[in-house]
């Protein structure tokens, strides 16, 4: 059922990319990875993922900018965005939600909790 759901993981930290890719594949998602915001935007154009796990602090184009561009595009505004960031101040989190994020998870995070939240978002996509 989830195999059709595409998840894009965007982070410039290789260990985070690898562990999240493993987790999401184990859950049955079709996974794409990007190492920075501009690479993410290229993949979004081609693959149109349903869910994006998005780091904020990245080279070239940061996560806030990627989120803003997605939410301003009629073609992509349905994409669910989950920020995964070490930026855990109230104003950072508020900015993420103001830009249109569906979820904001602070690093470090529990993988079990993250997977549960992603599965809940995906369930909403399938049943909605």
TrEMBL record:
<protein>
    <submittedName>
        <fullName>Response regulator</fullName>
    </submittedName>
</protein>
<keyword id="KW-0597">Phosphoprotein</keyword>
<dbReference type="InterPro" id="IPR001789">
    <property type="entry name" value="Sig_transdc_resp-reg_receiver"/>
</dbReference>
<dbReference type="InterPro" id="IPR011006">
    <property type="entry name" value="CheY-like_superfamily"/>
</dbReference>
<feature type="domain" description="Response regulatory">
    <location>
        <begin position="6"/>
        <end position="122"/>
    </location>
</feature>
<dbReference type="Pfam" id="PF00072">
    <property type="entry name" value="Response_reg"/>
</dbReference>
<feature type="modified residue" description="4-aspartylphosphate">
    <location>
        <position position="55"/>
    </location>
</feature>
């Amino acid at each position: 059922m989830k195999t059709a759901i595409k998840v894009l993981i965007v982070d410039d930290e290789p260990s985070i990319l690898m562990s999240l890719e493993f987790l999401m594949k184990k859950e049955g998602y079709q996974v794409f990875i990007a190492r920075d915001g501009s690479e993410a935007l290229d993949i979004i154009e081609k693959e149109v993922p349903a869910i994006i796990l998005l780091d904020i602090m990245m080279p070239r184009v940061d996560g806030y900018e990627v989120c803003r561009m997605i939410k301003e595009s009629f073609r992509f505004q349905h994409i669910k965005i989950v920020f995964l960031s070490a930026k855990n101040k109230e104003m950072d989190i508020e900015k993420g939600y103001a830009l249109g994020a569906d979820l904001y998870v602070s690093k470090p995070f529990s993988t079990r909790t993250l997977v549960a939240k992603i599965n809940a978002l995906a369930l909403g996509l399938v049943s909605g």
